[in-house]
């Protein structure tokens, strides 16, 4: 039983790490794109370009949140207790609400 617990712990850490990498990748990409936009010649529409950067960053953040939720669900299977289930419900609830509003924000930007 201990080896399954250890394997699931490694899986949770790996999935959480992947979520972190997705978020970091999105932030770095957004910052690089923003700096490039500021130093580029004025041929492009700055408002539409910054909206595109925001859309890409939002997509990365949304994917990262979904990956973190998956890690939390896997984590709860490692040592299920009523306390851990309650914490999981709270964390998943908050992350789901954040994901919902971020998704709505991204949809509004597409118009």
Structure report:
The chain has helices at residues 2-39, 46-78, 82-110. By secondary structure, the protein is mainly α. It has one domain (2-110). Helix 1 (2-39) runs antiparallel to helix 2 (46-78) and helix 2 (46-78) packs antiparallel against helix 3.
Core attributes:
single chain; 111 residues; mainly alpha; 3 helices; 90% helix; elongated
The SSE string, one letter per element, is HHH
State the helix count.
Answer: 3
| CA distance, first residue to last residue | 52 Å
Shape: elongated
Rg is 18 Å
Structural class given helices, strands, pairing? mainly alpha
Number of strands: 0
Helical fraction: over 70%
Number of separate structural domains: 1
Strand percentage lies at under 5%
**Largest sheet, described in full?**
none
Overall pLDDT metric: 85
Q: Would you summarize the structure shown here?
A:
This protein has 3 helices and no strands. The chain is mainly α and 111 residues long.
Strand-helix topology:
Blueprint: H1 2-39, H2 46-78, H3 82-110
